[in-house]
Amino acid sequence: MFGGGGLNPRKMQQMMKQMGIDVEELDAEEVIIRTGDEELYFDGAQVTKMDAQGQETYQIVGEPNVRETGADEADALEEGEAAADDGGIPEADVEIVAQRAGVTESTAREALEENDGDLAAAVSQLE
C-alpha cells in the first residue's frame, strides 16, 4: 500500500496515524459474504478495520468455505409446503398441544386450526 516492505511495523503504524488512518483489529468469530448463488463464510478469520478520513474499509484474511444458497432456499420451501399441506399448522405445534392437553394429535390439530395456530388458546380450549 505504501511501499513499506522493509519498514518496522511500529514505524508503519506511526506513519498511518500521522496520515489520519486508524487501524483496528476486530475479534470476528465468523464472516459471511452472500452473492446471488453462493455464500463465502470464514471461520476464525482475521478482520482489520481501517478508517481513513471517515471512509471505513474492512480486510478479511483467511480461507473461505463455499456453500450454495439455492439449496437452503429449496429446503425451506419444501418444509413450508409440507406445513401448508397440513392446513398450515406445523407438526411440532400439534405435538406440543396434544401433549399439554393430553389429547390425540387430530384433536390438537383441530383446536389449533380453530384458534388460527395460537398454541396457548388451543391448549386452553382443550383443558
From TrEMBL:
A single GO BP = protein transport
Q: Where is this region: Disordered?
A: 105-127
Residue intervals of the NAC-A/B domain = 6-73
Supply the Pfam families for this chain.
NAC
- Classification via Gene3D superfamilies: DNA helicase RuvA subunit, C-terminal domain, Nascent polypeptide-associated complex domain
One GO MF term, please? RNA binding
Looking at the keywords, is Kinase present? no
Q: Which InterPro entries match?
A: NAC_A/B_dom_sf, NAC_arc, Nas_poly-pep-assoc_cplx_dom, UBA-like_sf
Entry keyword set: Protein transport, RNA-binding, Transport
Q: Where are the transmembrane segments?
A: none
Q: Which SUPFAM superfamilies does this one have?
A: UBA-like
Instruction: State the family it belongs to.
Output: Belongs to the NAC-alpha family.
Q: Self-association or partners: how does it assemble?
A: Homodimer. Interacts with the ribosome. Binds ribosomal RNA.
Task: State the protein's purpose.
Answer: Contacts the emerging nascent chain on the ribosome.
NCBIfam families recorded: archaeal-type nascent polypeptide-associated complex protein
The protein, known as: Nascent polypeptide-associated complex protein
Kindly list the organism's lineage.
Archaea, Methanobacteriati, Methanobacteriota, Stenosarchaea group, Halobacteria
